[in-house]
Amino acid sequence: MKERRNPSEAQTVRRMRSKPVGPKDPRARNDAYWALRQQGYSDAFARRAFRDMLPRFYREKMELSGEYIDDIDPDDLLFVPQMNTELKTLAVMVRPELTEDAVATASPRDTEYTIPSAVTPGFGLRVRPSGKRSYVVMFRIAGTKTQGKVTLGDPGVLSLEIAKRLAREVRIEALAGNDPRPMHKSGELLRRLK
């Protein structure tokens, strides 16, 4: 299997021929990620969208009179405003940033999901369909390709700041080539923070 960063010539030609996402592309109507990308949002923001929920497009009738155009000089208008204009807006569910409020108000959904931290890589809040919430951290031990996961604890037991510090310790141990799971179970990582 070839690395993603070094595509073959055939893959490069195929990518160049593919059309950009347009308003008639079915991906933009059936996938929240592509709907946001079509609207011009960045890849990093679009990845936060819940992809199992369909994007919704709403049509609103809006009158472009009164407060919208009263302050504009009529000579500066590029078009004559219609009395009733229809605007199409997009509604997509996006994962919130990981804050104390997001931890407290994270609601369960049909499938398990994780609210990732933008500050600490690999760290997030896992929310299960049963409503159980827990802090988790993903890591790779240096020199291996397999990914590991450690459940740090529940939000009622650990504060967000302590969980972030524990996540950093777990990732430091993994980068050093040690398996952090036995250290976490024995409580050694928590003793280091004190």
Characterise the protein shown here.
- With 194 residues, the protein is α+β, with helices and mostly antiparallel strands.
- Helix content is 31%, strand content 20%.
- The protein folds into two domains: 9-60 and 87-91, no CATH class; 100-193, Integrase, DNA-binding domain (Double Stranded RNA Binding Domain, 2-Layer Sandwich), CATH 3.30.160.
- The protein is built from eight helices and six strands, in the order H-H-H-H-E-E-H-E-E-E-E-H-H-H.
- The strands form two sheets. It has a four-stranded antiparallel beta sheet, covered by helices on one side.
- The longest helix is centred in the C-terminal third of the chain and has 16 residues, at 160-175.
- It is extended.
Structure summary:
The chain has helices at residues 9-17, 26-30, 32-38, 43-46, 100-105, 160-175, 180-186, 188-193; strands at residues 56-62, 85-91, 113-116, 123-127, 133-140, 147-153. With 194 residues, it is an alpha+beta fold.
